[in-house]
Amino acid sequence: MVKGQIRCIGSPQHLKNKFGSGYRLLLTYSPDKQLEVHNFVTSHFAGCKLLESMEGFRMYDVNAVGNSLASLFALVEENKQAMSISNWAISQTSLKQVFLHLTKQQNENQPLFSE
């Protein structure tokens, strides 16, 4: 519900698939590899968006189109040593993030889908 009206309905997985942006990729790495890590992510994940960046840490929004979760895991795992990645995680868009996305659209007067 957004502003007292039902804007979408479905199972949690359906809502994540329909309105979610894909996956969140979190990387912890050696600070001297920042440019290499950024180039790696942007070259392998078209349309990714940098959400947060601190020294030795980055969080990206990665589009799920054409990328299975298994392929994302394999790609990061294959390249983590070369990129000096010490820790990493991939997670699906949460229901909270879906809700925030829908309310942002409402506040910007963009049309919402009602499926």
CA radius of gyration? 16 Å
Question: What is the first-to-last residue Cα distance?
Answer: 12 Å
Which second-level CATH architecture of the domain at 21-92 applies? 2-Layer Sandwich
**Quantity of strands, as a count:** 4
Proportion of beta-strand residues? 15-25%
The CATH superfamily of the domain at 21-92 is identified as: ACT domain
**What's the overall average pLDDT, rounded?**
82
- Classification by helices and strands: alpha+beta
Q: How does the overall form come out from the CA principal axes?
A: elongated
Briefly note the CATH topology name of the domain at 21-92: Alpha-Beta Plaits
Series of secondary-structure elements, N-terminal to C-terminal: HEHEEHEH
Q: What is the CATH first-level class name of the domain at 21-92?
A: Alpha Beta
SSE arrangement:
Blueprint: H1 12-19, E1 23-29, H2 34-44, E2 49-54, E3 57-62, H3 69-79, E4 85-92, H4 95-107
Antiparallel strand pairs: 1-3, 1-4, 2-3
Helix pairs in contact: 1-4
Task: Give an account of the 3D structure.
- By secondary structure, the chain is α+β, with helices and mostly antiparallel strands.
- It has a domain at 21-92: 2-Layer Sandwich (Alpha-Beta Plaits).
- The protein is built from four helices and four strands.
- The protein has helices spanning 12-19, 34-44, 69-79, 95-107; strands spanning 23-29, 49-54, 57-62, 85-92.
- A hairpin with a 2-residue loop joins strand 2 and strand 3 (57-62).
- It is elongated.
